[in-house]
Design brief:
Length: about 110
Amino acid sequence: QAQLVESGGGLVQPGGSLTLSCTGSGFTFSTYDMYWYRQLPGKGREFVASIYSFGNPRYKDSVEGRFTISRDNAKETVYLQMNSLKPDDTAVYLCHNFALNIWGNGTLVTVSA
């Protein structure tokens, strides 16, 4: 059964950093584009970043320059390095495999003093 499991969320002060991880299983991870989305409190999910199977990262405008998406196909893991975090980044961050329509359960990031 294909699944995604996120980790790395937590409470961080404004200006701080966190790195999220998402590990896939049950599918050939290296051949799929991978996505990070986030769900803000009381709002729908929004695209954060993506990385194709061969690379080529893309970002939501408001996180470009602060967030970095990367992947380690040998570890079947995609990462989201988040720097200069702002209170507006507070959300549940979810990993997504669009082609297989798989979502992880999410990991909560709270940015607060």
